[in-house]
Design brief:
The protein has 678 residues and is of the alpha/beta class. The chain is built from 24 helices and 26 strands. The strands form six sheets. The chain has a seven-stranded mixed β-sheet with strand order 5-4-16-15-14-6-7, sandwiched between helices. Strands 21-25-22-24-23-26 form a six-stranded mixed beta barrel. Strands 10-9-8-12-13 form a five-stranded parallel β-sheet. β17 and β18 form a beta hairpin. α8 packs antiparallel against α11 and α17 packs across α19. The model has no long low-confidence stretch (mean pLDDT 95). The protein binds iron/sulfur cluster (SF4). The site of iron/sulfur cluster has 13 residues, from α1 and α7.
């Protein structure tokens, strides 16, 4: 029997847990009492974060497709084939004819190597990952306003906050550790809870004010709160004068967003808006907390900028237990962004368009001619497969068949791929379309680091070997690079990769493995003497002065009409994670939530004669799914909600591939559907 301290594989809270090994299997998980953030707590997913590791369905050998069927292949054969095909495609059609999808489930070291493979070996910036589908708007919006696109404060600071404004985050379902901190603060310290969410969520029970806005109207209610604050003289005048710029333009823009006008757009009663505005503005330690209900819109960047405006208006940034706090979804989505698995930046958000940054990475990687134009993003890469601009795609640990919007479009594009490589722990829905499948190690079978939502980089540790011939993702990437003739990706272990990361990534400059033991450090951590940074923008913003960037309200791309008369929103539930490849193979979790459903309001269900549990058909302009109705007051009248985890009735058959023009994030949270009884 052995045990190893590691980090949970599911959400961005980054809880510390021990995995227990017996007889070569991982047989249990239990919380680390000494972990400074999770402090001996895990949610149900953390307690069960090991069962999928032992699944008999794990990939154990490379597979090559021949005549439409997979056959087992030797590693050498599979790697040589990948190198040969990718080199041939780039020789014929140029560097940008290949693309790479990295993964928020893999480690920092692996994300760094994936972007190095794309950039140094294939000379393309066509590398991206699922942050594009969840928090790309955060990265853009907060970088523009504050100078840094990450959570401003840390999880432990939730214990001291006196007011929470939570929007677009079903926190107890998606970030249970943080959700429980918020509930404790309300119950034990009488912290005020303000919620803006189209659904009634678990936290609504504890809220002083729940503003149930119409989906896709966030800029309007945030502008409305700022209107009230300025009208009543509750803005922090000294803070605005000292630390910000652009206030007059904001004041001018929000002038028309009276509570009455905002009520017409959002359906939020004006009294609730006024109470929320007064409470947030007059509480010193007030935190804004948001997630994908804010970011996954065609106005995602506008939504984030508006929340940043609100926080600066009231002087709520740059102090403990304040700030604007985007909760990052996947365990390592923060790290995958930090390490440059994005189409526009190297690690540490150093721009590919900056000649100085390019020179620096050319020297570090011993290459010439790094590309200077921004690459294609996730949804653009998939579409480019469809129109032949991208001919070869390498996917590590992502499952776009289930996770990307407009599934029928994704399928058509994957079918058109000339050469598709998928590297994963299971044969996913996406892997079924691959030409080569590579078996990867799970988090229990490799070393490395994840960075959680509060920017804490922490270790994961190998406790068992991978099954069969599976290998750690970082080892596979190095073999591909070597087969392509590149000599700059030779590492004996992951600590050597982190040493390279430290040297080229200022925010990770002080993060040696030695210093990350046992519980990690939060960036910025620029030197080996630096203690890490729990909250950002102390004394001044990362960009100097914080910028008010006022945004007007713009309607969502697809509102309901006479035919498609419901608003559909999608999201996660407590029991499952993402495309359910891991939680769907975990008996405790699967037992609790085995099947897809659509939430309908009792008034709508009554009018259509639909009873709880009955099958219904939900149709959008892009396709339809059939699934059980869950009749519940959680959703508003003429709204419905489908968890996106289930391949059996994939919500993304219905969603629209309309994207934010800057962040390129799809509008998962609003599309028009019709609901019919079967
Ligand atoms: Fe894992 Fe998140 Fe649950 Fe913590 S709260 S145990 S990180 S899923």
């Amino acid at each position: 029997m052995d045990k190893k301290l590691t980090t949970c594989i599911y959400c961005g809270c980054g809880c510390g847990l021990y995995l227990v090994e017996d007889g070569g299997l991982v047989v249990g998980a239990y919380p680390s009492v000494k972990h400074p953030v999770s402090k001996g707590c895990l949610c149900v997913k953390g307690w069960n974060a090991y069962e999928f590791v032992n699944s008999m369905e794990r990939l154990t050998h490379p597979l090559i497709k021949e005549n439409g069927k997979f056959r087992k292949a030797a590693w050498d054969e599979a790697i040589k084939l990948i190198a040969k095909k990718f080199k041939a495609i780039t020789k014929e059609s140029g560097s940008n004819a290949v693309a790479f999808l990295s993964s928020a489930k893999t480690t920092n070291e692996e994300n760094y190597l994936m972007m190095k493979l794309a950039r140094a070996v294939f000379k393309t910036n066509n590398v991206d990952h699922c942050a594009r589908l969840c928090h790309a708007s955060t990265v853009v919006g907060l970088a523009a306003t504050f100078g840094s696109g990450a959570m401003t404060n840390s999880i432990n600071e939730f214990e001291e906050a006196d007011c929470f404004l939570i929007t677009g985050s079903d926190t107890t379902a998606q970030h249970p550790l943080i959700g429980s901190r918020i509930i404790n603060s309300v119950l034990e310290r009488s912290a005020k809870l303000l919620i803006a969410d189209p659904r009634k969520i678990e936290l609504s029970k504890y809220a002083a004010v729940h503003m149930q806005q119409k989906n896709g109207t966030d800029v309007a209610w945030v502008n409305g709160m700022m209107h009230v604050i300025i009208k009543e003289g509750l803005e922090d005048k000294a803070y605005i004068a000292l630390r910000t710029e652009g206030f007059e333009a904001l004041k001018e823009l929000v002038r028309e967003y009276t509570p009455e006008y905002v009520e017409k757009i959002t359906t939020i009663p004006k009294e609730k808006l006024i109470e929320a505005a007064r409470t947030y503005a007059t509480t010193k330690k007030a935190m804004i907390v948001y997630s994908m209900g804010i970011t996954q819109h065609t106005t995602g960047v506008d939504n984030v900028k508006s929340l940043a405006n609100l926080a600066m208006l009231t002087g709520h940034v740059g102090f403990p237990s304040t700030g604007v706090n985007p909760l990052r979804g996947q365990n390592n989505v923060q790290g995958a962004c930090d390490l440059g698995a994005l189409a526009n930046v190297y690690s540490g958000y150093q721009k590919v368009t900056d000649p100085t940054a390019r020179k620096k990475f050319e020297a570090a990687w011993n290459v010439e001619g790094l590309p200077g134009e921004v690459g294609l993003t996730v949804t653009e890469i998939i579409s480019a497969l469809g129109n032949g601009k991208v001919r070869g795609l390498y996917i590590m640990g992502e499952n776009p068949m289930i996770s990307d919007p407009d599934q029928n479009h994704v399928r058509e594009c994957l079918e058109k791929a000339e050469f598709l490589v998928v590297q994963d722990v299971f044969l996913t829905d996406t892997a079924a379309y691959a030409d080569v499948v590579l078996p990867a190690a799970s988090f229990a079978e490799k070393n490395g680091t994840f960075t959680n939502t509060e920017r804490r980089c922490e270790r994961i540790r190998k406790i068992i070997p991978p099954p069969g011939e599976a290998k750690a993702d970082w080892k596979i990437l190095c073999e591909v690079a070597k087969a392509c003739g590149y000599k700059g990706m030779n590492y004996n272990d992951t600590s050597e990769i982190m040493e390279e990361i430290r040297k080229v990534t200022p925010i990770y400059g002080g993060m040696s493995y030695k210093r990350l033991d046992p519980h990690g450090l939060s960036w910025p951590c620029p030197s080996l003497e630096h203690p890490g940074t729990p909250y950002l923008h102390k004394d001044k913003f990362s960009k100097g002065k914080g910028s008010f960037l006022p945004r007007p309200f713009i309607e969502p791309k697809e509102n309901p009409d006479d035919e498609f008369n419901f608003i559909l929103s999608t999201g996660r539930i407590y029991w499952h994670w993402h495309t359910r490849t891991m939680t769907g193979r975990t008996s405790t979790l699967e037992r609790e939530a085995p099947a897809p459903y659509v939430e309908l309001h009792p008034e709508d269900a009554g009018k259509m004669g639909i009873r709880n549990g009955e099958k219904v058909k939900v149709t959008s302009r892009r396709g339809h799914v059939e699934l059980a109705a869950r009749v519940t007051g959680k959703v508003a009248v003429k709204s419905c909600f489908i968890p996106f985890h289930y391949r059996e009735a994939a919500a993304n058959v219905l969603t629209i591939n309309a994207i934010d023009p800057i962040a390129k994030i799809p509008e998962y949270k609003v599309c028009a559907v019709k609901v019919e009884k079967i």
